[in-house]
């Protein structure tokens, strides 16, 4: 049973890898115009939603795996806080994307572009920290 949860956990971690690319992809939105911005942002919105689902899978499978291995309480607290922070910020990012996508002509994208770019960078940093904490537990 542990092997199934390890597989799910690793698969979810791979799916969340998009958060490392998202800052670079969100910088590309500015170079596009109108409908192209809308289309590209629609793809990023779907990718963000997929990453959020992977985050939930990783949190649940990780909870099971932690119950089978003895880790320090400090590591568990840091891990949960980082996961919850990433979940919250990806939700904020999704909200900004949803507002930017409210007009199909792409006219509202520029209004929310700054928030989308900054949230993408913060999410990328948080995911990098999560990978570091998972790879090097203390």
Topology:
Layout: H1 2-15, H2 18-28, H3 34-68, H4 73-100, H5 109-135
Helix pairs in contact: 1-3, 2-3, 2-5, 3-4, 4-5
Which terms would index this structure?
about 140 residues; Four Helix Bundle (Hemerythrin (Met), subunit A); elongated
How many domain modules?
1
What percent of residues are in strands? under 5%
Distance between the termini: 25 Å
CATH fold naming:
Four Helix Bundle (Hemerythrin (Met), subunit A)
Average predicted local confidence, pLDDT: 92
Q: How is the biggest beta sheet arranged?
A: none
Share of helix, binned: over 70%
How many DSSP helices? 5
Number of strands: 0
Question: Structural class given helices, strands, pairing?
Answer: mainly alpha
Looking at the chains present, what oligomeric state does this protein adopt? single chain
């Amino acid at each position: 049973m542990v092997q199934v949860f390890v597989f799910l956990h690793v698969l979810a971690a791979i799916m969340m890898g998009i958060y490392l690319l998202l800052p670079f992809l969100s910088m590309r939105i500015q170079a596009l115009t109108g409908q192209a911005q809308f289309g590209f942002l629609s793809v990023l919105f779907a990718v963000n939603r997929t990453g959020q689902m992977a985050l939930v899978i990783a949190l649940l499978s990780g909870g099971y795996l932690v119950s089978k291995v003895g880790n320090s309480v400090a590591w568990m607290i840091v891990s949960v806080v980082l996961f919850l922070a990433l979940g919250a910020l990806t939700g904020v990012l999704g909200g900004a994307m949803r507002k930017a996508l409210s007009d199909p002509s792409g006219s509202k994208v520029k209004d929310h572009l700054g928030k989308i770019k900054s949230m993408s960078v913060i999410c990328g940093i948080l995911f990098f920290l999560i990978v570091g904490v998972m790879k090097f537990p203390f």
